[in-house]
Design brief:
The protein is of the alpha+beta class. It has 19 helices and 27 strands.
Amino acid sequence: MSEQLQDASRSVADRLRVVSAAAAGVIGARSREALRSVLEEACRQVLPSDAFMLLGYDAATHTFQDFAGRDATPAAGTPGERVVHERRSVLVHRTDDAGAPDGPLSGIGYPFGSAIHTPVLAGDEVLGVLAVHSFTPDRYTDADVGVVEVLASLAATALVNMRLAESRQEAMEALRERERQLSEAERLARLGSWRWTIGSDHVIWSDELFRIYGLPPNKGRIAFSVFIAHLHPEDRARVLARIEEARRGGKPYDFLHRIVRPDGTVRVLHARGAVVHGPDGRPHQMIGTGQDVTDLTAAEAALRASEESYRTIFELASDAIFVHDLETGAILDANRKACELHGCTLDELKALGVGGISDGRPPFDAGHAWDRIRRAAGGEPQRFEWLVRRKTDERFWVEVSLHRVRIRGEDRILASVRNIDERKQAEAALKRAYEELEQRVAARTAELAERTAALEQAEQRFRAIVEASPTPLLLSRLDDGVILYANDRLETLIGAEPGSLVGKKTPDFYTDPADRPRVLETVRRQGYVRDLELCIRRADGSPCWVSLSAQRLVFDGAPTVATALIDITERKQAEAALRASEASYRSLFDNLTELVYVQDLDGRFLNVNEAVVQAYGYRRDEIIGQTPALLAASDRVDVEETMRCFRLAVAGEPQRFDWWGRRKDGSCFPKTAVASRKRWCSSARPTSARTWSSPSPATSRIGWRPKPRCGAAKSTSGGSSRMPRT
């Protein structure tokens, strides 16, 4: 018996040495599948077994998960459930043992003779179950259970290590994601961060701060001297003083300063910083941020300039201007002219409101005024006449225009008011004069009606009128064109002797024989011809251009044509000269090296010269009818601001400003533009003209202004005008 115990003891010791040798491989397993494989190999070396199982346990779902990757299996009703609940090993000697659990261990799928089921524990937490099976009953002993429990302990250590590694990996991935998000947030906000250990020679910068300074990232480190070198010379002393003040006082700072990039570009930064104290209470580090606010500061400057311009125009306007609240109609602001018009201060106007400065009697009362304001607020512009009163209660007439506008980011009603009292008085006087004239005309009509019976007197009056008329007149028969009457003005026009035209035929005087049939056809069809331009022949054979008007009538009982002629020869000659001038202008227009535009009052291009086509790469027909937005580099030019300059030019105020153009291929180039309002002689329509040129010295000073047409403004590479911004 003693020898048997010694053999068993040596057997256990040998097996534990095998387990100890396998421990490093078990604990160092990188995956659950690898752990299962190493454990199974170790188990086969120390225990006789026909089956090996290593199952993971999920307490939340009360299921087992095979490390081989099969689906989860419910733990209820399995030997493993007992192991989980009791947190101790279960030794099954034989399956017919009354003490053996019912049913096979989950995942076996076949009966067994004896088995060891051991929990894999990490403290009080059950991580899984380790089981070995044999088809032979009573195969395993308590010593075997001890060996399996050692293996289970090693498995628990390996699983805990895997969990820690997975947690560490997740934490590292989360950290990298947070760093990526922070970097992206800094890029979007143009905000870089920094950290400086006080007294050291280097500062730790974020990648975005390197980008802001125009420098390549240097592993996040930059020499403090390099930082100082990139401060704007005019701001350097102030920045260093603020840093030193914060370091000594331990208080945060917040201010704007400028930097100079390596390419010479100046940027404006919003600097914020704070001091971090060490365990001894002394300043240890400084941390902070630098945000690129160049565009913001430029926009704020432009906004201030725009506000000043708006206020100047507002106060110097010749019309009275009121700004009303969109919801209540209350007076929020008024210019100097409005105060003068009503004899009130601005505060008095605000207190009186629309009702207080109106006549007060319907329809010129507050209710009707509010109805007009409500319509304008709905997007329907209003224009009407209104009776108002001054502070002295004196009544007078005004013309009011209401529009919904946006001022300083708020929707408002803008009222433009003009004093029309003198015009109303003139209209009243004109109405009285018209009524008097109607009375006189009525009396004269009655007088003429009494004399219509005297046909001979009427004929004499007609002849006297015809003879006295400055217009050449004649009567001719409709069928053969024989002249029945011609006044002396016609004889002068034709160059004929007095009385020599009667009896002659009108076809003899048409330069183009086809003209007379065309005239007669129109007279027969509609009874008259008006202002038909054609060429006739004088008595000496020379051509003469006339504007012909004819009326069909009955004279001495025969169809007759009464014809009036107006000499337009000089006008025709002038038109011919103008066409020649137009051809010369077109040649000059298209051969100019400067970029020339002609635009209507809405800013759309009416014409452009060849230089524009070459500069932008668009065909002329692609540009005609478009607005400057087509040619603008939208990321560098505020088109709305450009159109504002254009509207000022249309109002008569010449404008000069810088511009960035974008070619059809997407490339951009700068230029300077000048815009002014002129008249287009060929159509007599007001237009705005611009000339834009490339900044080359050869063309930058060339300008033109054709005399008979609208003056095209020119652009140059020089000048100090500011590019429009919002």
